[in-house]
Amino acid sequence: MYETLDNLLAKGVNQAAYCFEQAGWTPATWTWLFCAFVVMASIGTLTVRAGLIVIGTKFLLSVLLVIGPLFFIAACFPVTRRFIDSWLNKVLENILVQLFGITVVVMATKIIGNFIKVNDITKAIDANPAGIAVQVAIVSGILLYVIQQIPNLAGALSGSFASAMLKISMPKLNPMNAQHSAIAERASWAQQQQNQLSHGGAVKGSNPKHDLSQDLKDRIAAHNMKHRH
Q: Which residue has the higher pLDDT, 77 or 188?
């Protein structure tokens, strides 16, 4: 990978150096100066951006793996448990950047390398050197745009995947608590029904409508108690 980037930069430097050799103080040779700057700027920018993607993310991935045990320790505590989600997200993102970066950068350097080989300014006799330099700049710009999309693509793919990895159902620490809770609920319900039966009798001198309603409630409570047990 590093040899590929070095060869690409060497081709750009050779093309620019030849253009500088052909340039002079006369206005007729100023086109060579334009070609030298265009070729060197386009090839140099493409090489630097590709190197940042491959070498930079490799360094960041190494740092993240070194400090990884700290995040696993933080995952043991509820307050700091969410930190490991961010760590996993960044680790997966840099891994995907490495995979996509190496693939795309190798393809891009091969494309621009073959294009320079076919449209070599140093061997151009009848061709216009300015036209070749502009073509090199256009191809380099397209490949540079493709390389710049790698971090966005990797971040979009790794974001949801890291969050899904942490959504694992945890077993209950004390399964007896659920049984005790259910028993307590049944006892509370039975006590309520018993209280309603014991205090639901008709009171002397009360309203007949109230007594009828209370009698209906007593019957419903008795029915519920019968079918409950």
A: 77
